[in-house]
Amino acid sequence: MDYKEYRPPTEIADLIECYWTNTLHPEDFNQAYDYIIPDRSTEAIFMLKGHYLRDDEHQKDRHLVEACSLVPAFHQAVKVYQQPHTTCLGIRFKPGAITRLTGVSLAELDKPTYRLQELMPEMAEETMDKVLGNRPVPELIESVNRWVSSRKKEANANHLLA
């Protein structure tokens, strides 16, 4: 498995913990599934190649994660089924960041995954255009940085006026 982390710029580090990429290789597969252990983070996942099936046995719920998704924090390990060469880009948000960026409280997010277009349509649209165009990861990250920075400025301006 190739796993890499990328730090956000200082001006948005209060909202984003890190960006990360993950590519699975054939030798990574010793069984049909892996587990994702919860870290209590909310993450946006962009599937750059492939998809994965998330199986939450405790909730008796399965979700196919493809294209771009928002995965709210969860509390128990879930099984994931993937194919070799699956590649994704993740954004690990800091606590409170989703509410600050979207106005949606995490308490309102009761599903295991959401289409990112539902909560952050502008970011999803801009980033998915680059994903579909096979743009390099640094370009995708820069696109997200610009969007988060513009949303942060807008949210701060609105807060100061209230």
Shape: globular
Radius of gyration, in angstroms, nearest whole number: 16 Å
Provide the low-confidence segments as ranges: none
State the total count of DSSP E strands. Answer: 10
Strand content: 25-35%
**Class of secondary structure makeup:** alpha+beta
Strand order of the largest sheet: 1-2-9-4-7-10
* H and E order: EEEEEEEEEHEHHH
Query: What count of helical segments does DSSP give?
Result: 4
- What percent of the residues sit in helical stretches (DSSP H or I)? 25-40%
**Average residue-wise pLDDT:** 84
End-to-end Cα distance, whole Å, is 48 Å
Largest sheet composition: 6 strands, antiparallel
Structural features:
single chain; 162 residues; alpha+beta; four-stranded antiparallel β-sheet; 10 strands; 29% helix; 32% strand; globular
Give the helices and strands, then pairings.
Layout: E1 2-6, E2 16-23, E3 34-36, E4 42-49, E5 52-56, E6 61-65, E7 68-71, E8 78-82, E9 87-93, H1 97-102, E10 114-115, H2 116-119, H3 121-132, H4 137-161
Antiparallel strand pairs: 1-2, 2-9, 3-8, 4-7, 4-9, 5-6, 5-8, 7-10
Helix pairs in contact: 3-4
How would you describe this structure to a colleague?
With 162 residues, the chain is α+β, with helices and mostly antiparallel strands. It is 29% helix and 32% strand. The protein has helices at residues 97-102, 116-119, 121-132, 137-161, and strands at residues 2-6, 16-23, 34-36, 42-49, 52-56, 61-65, 68-71, 78-82, 87-93, 114-115. The chain is globular and about 45 Å long. It starts with a strand and ends with a helix. The mean pLDDT is 84.
